[in-house]
Design the sequence.
C-alpha cells in the first residue's frame, strides 16, 4: 500500500476538561495515561511530541510529519471551535441539529461543545484509516448490489 493522501493521519486534540467528562478513548479519572495519548503542555510542545511519536512509528507507517503550519492552524481551529461552543451553534459540523445528537447525552444548551483551554495542557490521539471486519457479512454480487445470504 502506498499512502500518498495528504490527510492520511489525523489528530484528535483535547484537554483536561475532555478527559474529566470521559467518553470513548478517554482514561477513567485517576487512571494512568494510556500510551496512545500524546501530551504537551503547550501546542508547540504537543506538536513536538506528535512528531516524535510519528518518527518512532516510521518503520511501520513510513515517513509522515506535521506540516510547519500545524500549530498556527490548530490554534485557529481551537479559536473557531471555542466560538461555536460559546454560541452553541456549530457552523462546521452542525452538532445538535439532528435528534440523534442528543440521544446518548440528553439535551444541552451548547450542543455538547465545551471550549478547549487556550493555555494547555493539550493531548492528542493519532487517528488512522481502518477497516471493519464483518465476519462474512454481505456478499457482493456482480451487479455491485449486496445480498444478505450467500449463494453459490
Sequence:
Amino acid at each position: 500500500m502506498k499512502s500518498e493522501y495528504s490527510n492520511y493521519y489525523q489528530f484528535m486534540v483535547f484537554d483536561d476538561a475532555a478527559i474529566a467528562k470521559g467518553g470513548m478513548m478517554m482514561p477513567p479519572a485517576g487512571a494512568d495515561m494510556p500510551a496512545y495519548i500524546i501530551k504537551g503542555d503547550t501546542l508547540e510542545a504537543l506538536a513536538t511530541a506528535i512528531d516524535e511519536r510519528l518518527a518512532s512509528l516510521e518503520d511501520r507507517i513510513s515517513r509522515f510529519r506535521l506540516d510547519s503550519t500545524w500549530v498556527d492552524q490548530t490554534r485557529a481551529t481551537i479559536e473557531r471551535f471555542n466560538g461555536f461552543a460559546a454560541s452553541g451553534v456549530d457552523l462546521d459540523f452542525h452538532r445538535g441539529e439532528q435528534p440523534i445528537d442528543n440521544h446518548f447525552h440528553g439535551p444541552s444548551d451548547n450542543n455538547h461543545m465545551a471550549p478547549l483551554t487556550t493555555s494547555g495542557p493539550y493531548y492528542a490521539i493519532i487517528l488512522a484509516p481502518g477497516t471493519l471486519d464483518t465476519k462474512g457479512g454481505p456478499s457482493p454480487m456482480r451487479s455491485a448490489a449486496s445480498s444478505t445470504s450467500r449463494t453459490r
Notes: The helical segments are 16-21, 43-56, 58-61, 70-87, 100-103.
